[in-house]
Amino acid sequence: MEISVLQKARAAYEPKLPPAFVNGALMTVEKSAPTESIGDQESIKKLFPANYGKPILEFSAGEQKKAPKPINVGVILSGGQAPGGHNVIAGIFDGLRSINDKCKLYGFLGGPSGLVDNESIEITEELVKQYRNTGGFDMIASGRTKLETPEQFEKAAKNCKKLGISALVIVGGDDSNTNACLLAEHFCMKKNPIQVIGCPKTIDGDLKNEFVETSFGFDTACKVYSELIGNIARDADSARKYWHFIKLMGRTASHITLECALQTHPNIALISEEVAKKKQTLSDIVEDIVKVIGKRAKKKRNFGIVLIPEGLIEFIPEIKKLINELNEIMTKDEAALNFLKTDEDKTSFIRGKLSNEAASVYVSMPMQIQIQLIKDRDPHGNVQVSMIETEKLLAQMVENRINTLKSQGKSDVKDVKFKAQCHFMGYEGRCAAPSNFDADYCYTLGATAAALVGSGSTGYMAAVRNLTKASDQWMSVGIPITMMMNMERRHGKEKPVIQKSLVYLAGKVFKEFAENRDKWATETEYLYPGPIQYFGPTEVCDQPTKTIVLECG
Ligand code: FBP
């Protein structure tokens, strides 16, 4: 297989490991006092009697006395791709080899379904070599099957037994790690000694808390999007005729939009969590954008950049209410809806079932958006926000509003010449070659997962602390997954879940943005971060995100 020149050079990159791994993944473990879940302690304790209250584990260099017996481990990549996944696998592989040369690593294919359907490959030295420091999850592929029923757990146990697997590493987001903990608990209760370890992955950056500083992939994805936004901003300032509406992935949370705003200084960045707090309507948002467009036009700046988080519409209270009603109708009337052939028939059926308030919001939207809002939900029951063209919805509504104001002779928009270009950035960044930060972090996460396996732990998430410092000060830890849990209502039932982290409006990251945004709105102070640099001075190549620096630095 032919590979690019950069890929060749990247293959030779040796990810930095904290000094604790100087003798490999056979380490000394220090235990904290027993822990509590972040909320609903009684309920979580009852649901996880075997795993609740475990201590935090901190690893330090141990003696390199190989384990007497080899361990067979299975790894699963779950959910959306995130840069660095292959380095997690490489870290587990090398870590296991340091425990015992005969340890074997199996990759379950296509995500959690591979474990249930027994589709796997053995991950060999040769295979790992081809994927070190590369982006993507293509070594074993990913999938979104939810691993949550006792039947699936039993199939998983049977398939592990066939391969002699005594530990699983599940690399995923908040939902997948919650399910990893349910699986760990199931095995403990069945007295099945299979260990289950989780790994924090998602470009969305919403799997973080007091114990996990960031999820892997966020760093690289934000850097890729920021490069592209910077390029578009420079084009905007060169042509001086377009407003660019850029929607950014991130599902529910606006962390990606906020980080990209700090990296590029756009004229407008909407933050869903703030929209919800201020209870803004869609027309309030449009009005705010039109105001900025009007002010810039007065300065002869008929161009600009608007960043829009992917999950925005779910945070607008009137649309949230509409989505809740749509979810109910789509569940209750699934058969009737499936019977209808055209999108027009479906949307008109739905309109008839909505409350008056929700129906008036629904019909106010362009037909394309009405159709997108009733597309299939993902296996976790979420609206597939990446399929809703919020950027086009806003650009269209802004244009309509400007035309209305112009027809009323309003002076605010007198100088406006509005032409929009719409973009959606998501898939462009999810499989990028990991930045040095993600390459190092992921390799360390993999090595930590191997150390957790070596120490006989289960129900833990691999984590690395001190990430804003140089890697020689990083600390490798195991966090009991129950510790990050609380109870939340999902699909009408109370469920134990890892709490999702949304943008904290009183936090330093949002404050930094809020203090600067008025200036960025009317001036043209774009920053052009340029492409990720893999080779060169550390201040150019090894910088973590502004988010993590402000939160943990
Ligand atoms: P995860 O939460 O699984 O990491 O997925 C991240 C993400 O990229 C979201 O930002 C986006 O909404 C979603 O995946 C898109 O899903 P899909 O890849 O199924 O289109």
Instruction: Please summarize the sheet with the most strands.
Output: 9 strands, mixed
Distinct ligands: 1,6-di-O-phosphono-beta-D-fructofuranose
Structure summary, number of beta strands: 15
CA-atom Rg in angstroms: 25 Å
Task: Give the rounded overall mean pLDDT.
Answer: 94
* Individual helix count: 23
Query: What's the domain count?
Result: 2
User: Which ranges are low-confidence, i.e. pLDDT below 50, for 5 or more consecutive residues?
Assistant: none
CATH architecture of the largest domain: 3-Layer(aba) Sandwich
Summarize the amount of helix as a percent range.
40-55%
CATH topology of the largest domain: the name is: Rossmann fold
The helix-and-strand class reads alpha/beta
CATH hierarchy class name of the largest domain: Alpha Beta
| Strands ordered across the widest β-sheet | 1-2-13-12-7-6-3-4-5
Distance between the termini: 42 Å
Structural notes for this entry:
The chain is of the alpha/beta class and about 550 residues long. It has helices at about 5-10, 40-45, 85-100, 110-115, 125-130, 150-165, 175-190, 220-240, 255-265, 270-275, 280-300, 310-315, 315-330, 335-340, 345-355, 355-365, 365-375, 390-405, 425-430, 435-455, 510-520, 540, 545-550; strands at about 25-35, 55-60, 70-75, 105-110, 120-125, 165-170, 195-200, 245-250, 270, 305-310, 420-425, 460-465, 475-480, 485-490, 495-500. The protein has two domains: about 20-215 and about 435-490, Rossmann fold (3-Layer(aba) Sandwich), CATH 3.40.50; about 220-430 and about 510-550, Rossmann fold. The protein is about 45% helix and about 15% strand. The chain has a nine-stranded mixed sheet, sandwiched between helices. Strands 9-10-8-11 form a four-stranded parallel sheet, sandwiched between helices. Helix 3 (about 85-100) links the parallel strand 3 and strand 4 (about 105-110). The longest helix is centred in the middle third of the chain and has 22 residues, at about 220-240. The mean pLDDT is about 95. Bound molecules: 1,6-di-O-phosphono-beta-D-fructofuranose. 1,6-di-O-phosphono-beta-D-fructofuranose binds near residues 202, 203, 249, 385 and 430.
